[in-house]
Amino acid sequence: MQHSDKIKTILLVDDDIDLLEQNKLLMESKGFNVVTAESGKEGFEVFNKIKPDVAIIDLIMEEYDSGFVLCHRIKKTEHGKKIPVFILTSATYDTGFKFSSETKEEREWIKCDGILHKPVVVDELISKLENYFDE
Amino acid sequence: MKDVKEHNAEKMLKDYSPRVLIVDDEKGLRIGTQRLLEMEGYYVETAENGTQGIDMGTKNDFDLAVIDLKMPDIDGLQVLSEIKNVRPNTVCLIATAYASYDTAIESTRLGAYGYIPKPFTPDELLYNLQKAYAQRLLILESEQLKKEREANLLELANERSRLSTIINLIGDGVLVINKQGEVVYRNNSVFHNLNIVEAKDNKELLSKLPDKIIDLINNYLGSDELIKKSYSTQIEIIQNELFIEAITSPVPNPDGSLAGVAVVIRNITELKKIELIKNQFVSMVAHELKTPVAAVLGFLKIIIDKNLKISEDQQNDFVSRSIVRLRSLLDLVNDLLDISRMELKTKQREIVTLDIKEIIKSTVELLEIEAQKRSISFSLVMEESVPVIKADHNEITRLFTNILSNAVKYNKEEGSISIITGSNENYLIVKVIDTGIGLKEEDKEKLFQEFYRVKNEHTRGISGTGLGLTIVKQIVDSYHGKIEVESQYGKGTTFTIYLPINNNN
After folding, report:
1. What CA–CA distance (Å, rounded) separates B223 from B146?
2. Residue B224: what pLDDT?
3. CA-CA distance, B130 to B144, in Å (whole number)?
4. Which of B350, B290, B353 is nearest to B499 (CA)?
5. Which of residues 228-267 of B touch A (CB under 8 A)?
6. What are the backbone angles phi and psi of residue B362, rounded to the nearest 5°?
7. Which residue of B276, B278, B283 is the best one to mutate when testing the A interface, meaning the one whose CB has the most A CBs within 10 A?
8. Within its chain, how far is the Cα of A9 from the centroid?
9. Residue B410 binned pLDDT confidence (cut-offs 50, 70, 90)
10. pLDDT digits (tens, 9 = 90+) for B43-91
11. Portion 29-68 of A in contact with B at CB < 8 A
């Protein structure tokens, strides 16, 4: 991150341990500090303990909406309001799940700051983060 | 005289002898007339007085009657009147020497066809009878036509009421609009399918039609040329509850101009619901397929990325994990194919008499290696004589493989699996009891749903497609059997499978 010398800590939550490990490895290679959790429940515990700078949450975990639930819980906390939270999913318009975060209204409703599509492109994530911190 | 003879009557005489009644009190005239007419091909009967004439003329349906006006007992006009009363289609001629204008009028009024002045020549008589017979044929013909017409009218009335009953019975709404844009016909289904509770007349009905239907109708009515095409549109009448398809077609006049528009309104709610379920299923399948592909893709990208510099051990680990993901993807595809085949019922079944004990034993053997790794033991309690069932060997093997492999996968270290067979009057019963992680109440309900997998701290790392029990349920259902689940969270689960016994053997 060019605009900040401090190393950012990312919380990654995904119940697919393969994807979790891959993303952790890729993000670490770009200079992030990465902590992981494998469920919505564990994700909230880690969030409270670590207080990360960014949270990236898989949508479908224990339940089809576990990601949304965790996102809401994080955004209710004092710290959660200050950091960007992204929903990570392979569920998109093509697969019939109809939601997006195109408009401010939608982001308000979903309570997340953006949606990342699987497989996540780390460069895309970084540009999203830069956009977020520039705003 | 021949040239004036009625052609039709002459022809008729060749193959039919018209029946003539002669009523006359003069014996000589009776016999002479009879002889003459019989020679000309008539069938003749005679009556010697009025009383006999009435008797014969009313009892039989004569084609023609020649009635003498003056008779000692009863007047000829009286005889005429009585015969005509009963036999209106018998053509009667009055014969008399006492002709007068008055009697001529009176006899015509009573229904006489004509009047023969006495004495008459044979030619005069024959000419008059010929004309009378032609009249008789006309009367019979018109009588026949009248009967046919009445029958047709009755038929038409029946047909109309039949058609209207049929149109009212069908589930599709039928609506006909004339060129002026007025409703000229509608059946009851129009109301049901459009959820119109009440319309006091057709005008009000028109005002309650959905705009989309009105637009389609106006396409036809507003066009100068006849539109020959049909159009259809789908409308959601009640959200998520009532969908219809409206199909409009032109009704042309015989000259090709537009007479009106017919609208058929079909309830397609069930179709829409199936479509929705199908779409949801496709979405879930797409998601389930994308996930392992994304995982493998991720590993491969990391392996070939020179900047990441991962160790050889890590590389090997990623390759092995990719293989696991690809294997599970293959399992998933196979499960999906099985489900789709079973739903389409295209799966070739070979129904044979099955030894259920043999199938269970060989399934257990296959799973034993996996079970031993985690010190899980099997115990089989089987009746000496298990009832016979008839089913496809592969399907029943698949059923027990899925149930028993779940019992291994979701068991605890050093756990056990008991398989007990039994039966009642109708079913072969197999109980599979495991000492595994058990199910929560909310998981039990969703267990047989496609892609539903119990996710908690105990199930992490257990692979599966989420389709195993869906397939089990489908197989059991297809044989009209049933499956029950009892479970205690943390203690274990018991599946009870009921398969119908083939009683014919």
Report:
1. 45
2. 80
3. 21
4. B353
5. none
6. -70, -30
7. B283
8. 12
9. very high
10. 999 999 999 999 999 999 999 999 998 888 888 889 999 999 999 999 9
11. 29, 38-39, 60-62
Does residue A103 sit in helix, strand or coil? coil
* pLDDT higher than 60, residue A3: no
DSSP B36-60: HHHHTT-EEEEESSHHHHHHHHHHS
DSSP, collapsed to helix, strand or coil, labels residue B480 as: coil
B323-335: average pLDDT: 89
B315 touches chain A (CB under 8 A): no
Whole-angstrom Cα distance, residue B203 to residue B146?
A: 41
- The CATH number of B272-344 is which of 3.20.20.140, 2.60.120.20, 1.10.287.130, 3.40.50.1010? 1.10.287.130
Looking at residue B64, what is its pLDDT? 94
User: What residues of chain B, 398 to 437, have a C-beta less than 8 Å from chain A?
Assistant: none
Regarding pTM above 0.80, the answer is no
Looking at CATH, the fold of the domain delimited by B170-267 is given as Beta-Lactamase (3.30.450)
CB contact under 8 Å between A19 and B455, yes or no, is no
Could you tell me the residue ranges of all domains in chain B?
2-145, 170-267, 272-344, 351-500
| pLDDT, mean over chain A | 80
Q: Do A95 and B286 touch (CB under 8 A)?
A: yes
**pLDDT in the model for residue B414:** 92
Task: Report the CATH number of the A9-62+69-134 domain.
Answer: 3.40.50.2300
Residue A31 has pLDDT above 90, yes or no: no
> How many whole angstroms separate alpha carbon B504 and alpha carbon B289?
45
In chain A, the residue whose alpha carbon lies closest to the alpha carbon of B455 is A62
What are the DSSP E strand ranges found in chain A? 9-13, 33-37, 54-58, 85-89, 114-117
If phi > 0 it is left, if psi is from -120 to 50 it is alpha, else beta; for residue B309 that is left
Query: Does residue B5 surpass a pLDDT of 50?
Result: no
> Is the minimum CB–CB distance between B463 and chain A shorter than 8 Å?
no
Angle B299-B302-B303 from CA coordinates, rounded to 5°: 85
- B452 vs A16, A61, B81, B449, CA distance in Å? 16, 12, 98, 5
Kindly report, residue by residue over A69-94, the tens digit of the pLDDT.
888 899 899 998 889 888 887 655 55
The alpha carbon of residue B20 and the mean position of all alpha carbons in its chain are separated, in whole angstroms, by: 59
Mean pLDDT of B183-212: 90
Q: B2-145 sits in which CATH class?
A: alpha beta
Of the two residues B505 and B376, the one the predictor is more confident about is: B376
